[in-house]
Design a protein that fits this description.
single chain, DUF3604 domain-containing protein, DUF3604, Immunoglobulin-like, 511 residues, TIM Barrel, mainly beta, 31 strands, globular, 5-stranded antiparallel beta sheet
Length: 511
């Protein structure tokens, strides 16, 4: 008998795997090219369970709004068969499954059963629409329940869709903005598609040349699978002074780098570029379904800080960055700790640095502000407890906090009070250009000068300068799609923004 026990256990496990005690869900196809129109099939398997009338399942597709809408999936709908985002049920079950939509942006598809569904049965749902243009592995949140009164259960294994990049549209070529003649420098190159995604399967041969004549160095290189669309060329140098740049050639197409100023001697200061304002879903406690769209990334909570930092460093080739989640009720102490941990993990002095930050999301009449720290021991002074600029300044002064408080002016109402009280100690720079200003440059009929209309407009920097504020200017992206630093490399990159430039002896928090 003792010898039979292991066999019985193995047999039990085998049968249990054949007939699971829980329902599960799958999605096909599992690999989709970004930005394309696609029909996907969602299959719900009951296995050895009976799902009673009123029970069912639900799943969520990432849906955006406003400036993020073009980057995510078409909003699901059940009214227009030929329309984008149409959701339907297979012929066998179309009269027994009721489809409804919910969520802050309508991305949650609810499938309620109108009769009992038997064991070993399968329900198939179809969605036809545009796939998100953002490349990552997308985990599809999904839940099920046995009847209308039971609790929702998260599927043990959530389906995943691998979003694949399109072909290369342009090449990002980056060199140091300052260097010394004959100094060895690095050239960083990334291949991106028309949506700004890194082309990880890029395998073409590139030729690199410079303006140096007659001592022009020529480099030829064929990208490999291991490069994943990014490569760093080391030990390049310029033999001429003044402004120089690199040209990268692929066949008949040429792409140029930023300019580098080549000095006769070691420069005292260098110029570095980065993005100090972008949002992700990291730290968002309500991460099962996007029912509120508040918290870190109030545009969707679908991206992560880790992927965003990786994008800033390896695709946009920036020198520094800071994720700055909104200080809402969902951005908890644990969320702040996670955000700081991710930021610290990407901090590499003299290569790529990060800061610890969040967005003080006050009412529009006061204005949002980006709060940046160099020290990770600081807490979130949220707008619910510190609801005025003065309360923040007094706290910073009392605690002797080393902080940068950056105005992020978003609205243009006449009652604006962002510049009512000067503070040149903590507010030394302000964000004059970001997604918000960019939006008015690309939308037909909008005024390209909406934010800066003169000294009498209380939200403008001209008004601030005329009323005692000694404040410099920076640009940021305010990105909500996991693509900080993205600029308008193609007409499909509508979520572009500005960059911040700093002058320092090295790229280091302490400088």
């Amino acid at each position: 008998v003792k010898q039979l026990i292991p066999l019985i256990i193995i047999l039990f496990c085998f049968i249990n795997n054949l007939f699971p005690n829980e329902a599960n869900i799958s999605i096909h196809p599992e690999n989709l090219v970004c930005g394309g129109y696609q029909t996907i099939k969602i299959e719900f398997f009951t296995h050895n369970m009976t799902i009673k009338s009123g029970g069912g399942f639900r799943f969520e597709l990432p849906v955006g709004y406003l400036e993020t809408k073009p980057y995510y999936w078409d909003k699901p709908q059940i009214d227009i068969i030929e329309g984008k985002g149409f959701v339907s049920v297979d012929e066998k079950n179309k009269n027994f499954v009721e489809i409804s939509l919910s969520g802050a942006r309508g991305g949650i598809v609810n499938c309620q059963f109108l009769k009992n569904v038997n064991p070993q049965d399968t329900i198939r749902i179809f969605y036809s629409g545009t796939v998100q243009s953002l490349v990552w592995q997308s985990r599809i949140n999904a839940q099920w329940r046995t009847d209308k009164n039971s609790e929702w259960h998260t599927f043990e294994i959530l389906p995943k869709i691998e979003i694949l990049n399109q072909n290369m549209r342009t090449m990002v070529v980056q060199i140091p903005s300052d260097c010394k003649i004959n100094e060895l420098i690095d050239i960083r190159v990334a291949a991106i598609d028309k949506y700004g995604n890194r082309v990880t399967n890029f395998d073409q041969t590139v030729t690199i040349t410079s303006q140096n004549k007659p001592n022009n160095q020529i480099i030829k290189y064929t990208f490999t699978e291991e490069d994943s669309g990014f490569y760093q060329f080391n030990n390049y140098s310029f033999s001429n002074t003044n402004f120089q740049k690199i040209t990268l050639t692929i066949g008949d197409n040429q792409f140029t780098s930023n300019y580098s100023f080549v000095h006769n001697k070691e420069p005292t200061y260098n110029r570095y570029f980065g993005d100090l304002h972008f949002h992700t879903g990291t730290g968002e406690e309500n991460n099962m379904f996007s029912s509120t769209f508040t918290g870190g990334d109030h545009r969707g909570n679908f991206s992560t800080a880790k992927a965003a930092y990786e994008y800033a460093k390896k695709t946009m080739l920036l020198d520094f960055a800071a994720s700055t989640e909104h200080d809402t009720q969902y951005f908890s102490d644990n969320g702040w700790a996670i955000s700081k941990s991710v930021s610290q993990s990407f901090n590499s002095p003299n290569e790529f640095i990060t800061f610890f930050g969040y967005e003080w999301t006050s009412k529009p009449q006061i204005g949002h502000h980006i709060i940046l720290f160099k020290d990770s021991s600081n807490i979130v002074y949220d707008h619910m407890k510190y609801n005025t600029q003065e309360s923040l300044w007094n706290t910073f002064e009392k605690n002797q906090t080393e902080v940068l408080m950056i105005p992020h002016v978003t609205w243009t109402q006449e009652s604006h009070g962002v510049w009512n009280i000067p503070n040149n100690q903590f507010r030394r720079v302000g964000e004059i250009y970001s997604l918000w200003n960019n939006r008015y440059l690309i939308q037909p009929g909008d005024n390209p000068q909406r934010f800066e209309l003169g000294l009498k407009k209380k939200w403008s920097y001209q008004y601030a300068w005329a009323n005692g504020h000694k404040i410099g200017l920076i640009g940021c992206s305010d990105n909500h799609t996991g693509h900080p630093g993205l600029n308008n490399y193609s007409p499909d990159c509508v979520h572009a923004g500005g960059l911040t430039s700093i002058i320092s002896s090295t790229v280091n928090r302490d400088h």
